[in-house]
Amino acid sequence: MARAAQPAANALFRDYALNHDMADIDPNNSRKLEDFAEIASDWFWESDAAHRMSYLSGRVETVLKIKISDVLGATRAKVSGAQKPDEGWAEHFADLEARRPFRNFEYSFIRPDDGEKLWLRISGHPIFDSAGLFKGYRGIGHDVTAELETMRRLKESNAALAERNTELTQVRRALERSANEDSLTGLLNRRAFERDLEEALSVENNTVILIHIDLDRFKWVNDTLGHPAGDAVLVTAAERLRHIASGIGPVYRVGGDEFLVVLADNAEIESARWISDSILEIMENPIPIERQNTSVGASIGIAAGLGGKFSPQQLIANADIALYEAKKDGRGCARELTPDMLGQIAAKRQLASQIAAAIQNDQIIPFFQPQIDAETNAVIGAEVLARWQHPELGLLAPNAFIDAATELGIVADIDRCMMQKALAFAERSLAAGLNLTSVSINLSAGRLTDPNLVSEVGACWTNRTCRLSIELLETISFDELQRETIVAENIAQLRAMGVKIEMDDFGSGRASITSLLSVRPDRIKIDRHLVQAATRDPMKRQAVSAILEMARALDIESLAEGVETEEDIAVIRGLGCHLFQGYVYARPLPAAGFVDFLRQRQTRAHPGSTGAQHFSDGRKAAFGV
């Protein structure tokens, strides 16, 4: 028989053998059945009422390598080589005792001639005579070793595949996490934020509220205590934000010390306010860093938008505007976007579009605020301040346009313009007999990194009779400055040229003692808020006194800004400072007003002098005023 036909022969044999009594079969047919059994892979068996083997077809000798004569008369369990697992055999014996038919009972068999382990599967059917008396069992057996081995290998393969699939799933999940989670804090990252915000705003008329959080004093922690301390602060901040926003909205870290919370599904502004207030409160709690406690605080901007009417970029920009207002209002607070804010932004953008032309059209002009020595009452110099003579809006102070100029990258052009005009004014003043001995000019951080700064100062400052001082603005991080090689080189070359370096708004918290020692300015200008507070607050007065003592120890000159009353002057003079600048003497003056101020001061100082007493319109015109 062909191999492909063998399963069909086995099935026919099983069906016939299980349903016919061999004793009742015609001898000729019995011989035919024997022949048929020999070509099948199964074998036929019979047992008597005591379960002793009474018949086995010849196929069993081929498979098990045993003699049938050695097996007849023995029960299956007693056949040499049969293995008896307790549980399986107990169930099999239970079937036999109950005289139930059974199918596919499997047991192992150790072949005696070669010791090979086989797995056998038998099925049987009870036999009863015509009177219903139990006579024994008739059934078939089959070698399933190859089948079970194949199944075993398949299971192993499936298990290995399942393990591999588990590994691949874990890798995929790890990749998904790395793609959507911030590695430091475990929060969702910018990619996840952009995806989620776009999805939330794709739902028509869905109210989405964006809360933009920025840590206030994080940069100080990073610069002073180091990046590991900064990382610890970020992790703590993330845990606090996650706790507050749990169940309300996801929290994202989108870079540096910036975090975002998205409230979707028709969010309510009251929820955003509650979350913001909770964040402001918890962020003021101390964070233990390197055996000391530090506190960073936060500023928050809140903006809302409707799905289908707001783009993600528009909502993000609005939240940024609100955050900027919070920082401008002194930090440590939350601000919601208002129509007034949008109006102010629109106005600033309009101004921004006109700044470049204003510089070209000579609309950016210098104002001068006198600096006085209270011991001699003499003018020792002036700080030069930029003003914009706008053709429609009138005179604009720097806070109306400097931010826009910075964003446009042209604040350096304003610095350059002020320097040229101030030094030209100083030269004309000296030529006219006015005693203007020093001018102080503000410089932005961008100018200090300009490789052309030194050569441009040299080209403008031709008459060195008037001293030139450069004030480093409060917006400059002095600690960062020292890490910029070009900044250190520019300051060194300016000093070599004779330019004096001043540190503005000292005591405002921008400049550290470390940076003071690094920069070693020629003069510090004590912050006006600290000066004014010293009049009424003993603690602030002690702070000013400490600053003055430190400056004297380092041989650094001190000037008090923002003096508005004679009492301010008296208090600060009593602490040892004699150089002042503020409204008590004069507000910032245009060139013409400053010429008059200088003339009047010189006239008082020299009553008999006539050289500077009268300035005709023609002489004023020579000053460009």
UniProtKB/TrEMBL annotation:
Q: Which residues form the GGDEF domain?
A: 206-339
Sorted alphabetically, which SUPFAM superfamilies does this protein's record hold?
EAL domain-like (SSF141868), Nucleotide cyclase (SSF55073), PYP-like sensor domain (PAS domain) (SSF55785)
GO biological-process terms attached to the record = regulation of DNA-templated transcription
What ranges does the record list as Basic and acidic residues composition bias?
616-625
- Under which name does UniProt file this protein? Diguanylate cyclase (GGDEF)-like protein
Instruction: Look up the coiled coil feature and give its residue ranges.
Output: 151-178
Question: Residue ranges of the PAC domain?
Answer: 103-156
Q: Does the record bear Cell cycle in its keywords?
A: no
Region of interest (Disordered), residue spans: 606-625
PROSITE patterns assigned to the protein according to its UniProt record, in alphabetical order:
EAL, GGDEF, PAC
Origin, by domain of life?
A: Bacteria
The residue ranges of the EAL domain are 348-602
State whether keyword Protein transport applies. no
* UniProt entry keywords in alphabetical sequence: Coiled coil
Which PANTHER family does this entry report, sorted A to Z? Answer: BIOFILM ARCHITECTURE MAINTENANCE PROTEIN MBAA (PTHR44757:SF2), DIGUANYLATE CYCLASE DGCP (PTHR44757)
- Kindly give the InterPro entries that the UniProt entry links to this protein: Biofilm_reg_signaling, EAL_dom, EAL_sf, GGDEF_dom, Nucleotide_cyclase, PAC, PAS, PAS-assoc_C
The protein's matches in CDD domains, at most eight in alphabetical order, are given as: EAL (cd01948), GGDEF (cd01949), PAS (cd00130)
Q: Which Pfam families match?
A: EAL, GGDEF, PAS
